[in-house]
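#struct-help
A.M.: can someone run this one for me? Single chain, 168 residues.
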Amino acid sequence: MIDRLTKEQRSWNMSRIRGKNTKPELMVRTILHRMGFRFRLNRKDLPGKPDIVFPKYKTVLFVHGCYWHRHHNCKNATTPTRNREFWIAKFADTKERDKRNQADLKKMGWIVQVIWECHIRKDPVLAVTNALIDAGLIDEDEPYPELQSDTLQSRVKERFDATWSKEK
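D.P.: on it. Structure tokens below:
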């Protein structure tokens, strides 16, 4: 299959992809902040520069894009048909680096959680809540009252649905 874009157009598109402050990250941070959590961002002294760090709880959250980090069995984790060998090697390196960084963090005593972009798009509050429950930061039996509010869920969803629809 031939790429619909020229090499220059493809290069320009790829240069616009950010590593920090992505829309999924902003959504997760908004929800966490509304839940009352305080955190640090992209700590350079930790392996992999985790997206969100809770020093008090020795917990980190990575907000991974399904495409770049190869979410298993996700429809968004496609492989380009052009220059396929390059992309397969690049994605394999990314997955290996993610595994290594997470293992290093765990050896240092950190709790590591990953929130996938597709889960955030589907139900952001649920994705964040599940990650916090899995990390042991909140108790499954005692959900935060703010999260039960339909207005919070609808406001968050409306805000980011509008943002994501502008991308396309």
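A.M.: thanks! The helical segments are 7-15, 23-34, 66-69, 84-107, 117-122, 124-135, 145-148, 150-167.
D.P.: also worth noting: Residues 8 and 163 are 26 Å apart (CA to CA).
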